[in-house]
Amino acid sequence: MVISVVAEDFRIERVLIDQGSSTNILYGFTYRRMGLLVLKETPGCLYGFLRERMPIRGIVKMDTIFGEGSNARMIPMLYTVVEAEASYNIIMGRPALNRLKAIVSTYHLCMKYPTSEGVGSVWANSNMARRCYEDSLRVGQRMSAVNTLSLELDPRSHDERERPHPMKKLKEIQIDLRENQKTKISTIMTKEQEADLIRYLYSRIDPNFMNHRLSIAQDARSVMQKKRKQGKEKRKAIKEETSKLVTARFIWEVRYP
């Protein structure tokens, strides 16, 4: 399964959870992209399933965060840095899973581990796993093909990682006279905060305070898109899904002059 982690203020995608690996592997191209400088040189080699030999550049220790929000857990992790062409940035082996005390379910594409607040979970990214597999088929070809692999290194600050997360415990309230005009709010607010929020939601929002509009140039001209023909099965599926959205009053028909 393929997940993402945060290490050294980088969100790193393409992280393979490999329960058959005896070490945590950080590939050299990922190491350089992260701008890491501390590398303890360690002589030795790694051997693959077919006894292929891979020299070790060294080892590096990084605090690694699994999960987000209340699911997050940070542990110091020791990585073995190797130079090899790969479609992954990191391979998390048994040392990482044991340190995290993680249970991996490949059937559910989920990994769970204990946290200070209970049990945290990380879900696999099936789309990213498919991309990694497709890219792995190109590894070993000419260098230009390998260099096209995206590394998904996203620098994040600590403050950004601590941004607010959606509340899990919500309750439904009425915000207008019509029965279907409802919304959900958090249950952890005080009575005064809740009363202020409901009073604000009942009032009409001043457009000068908040306004949604399309950012379109004033001199832009209208362009009518060409009609796209769909097959019989697609037309039937589109009609069914649209009917569901209309019934739920999530969308409605409008006519423009």
UniProtKB/TrEMBL annotation:
Protein name per Swiss-Prot or TrEMBL: Uncharacterized protein
Species assigned in the record: Mucuna pruriens (Velvet bean)
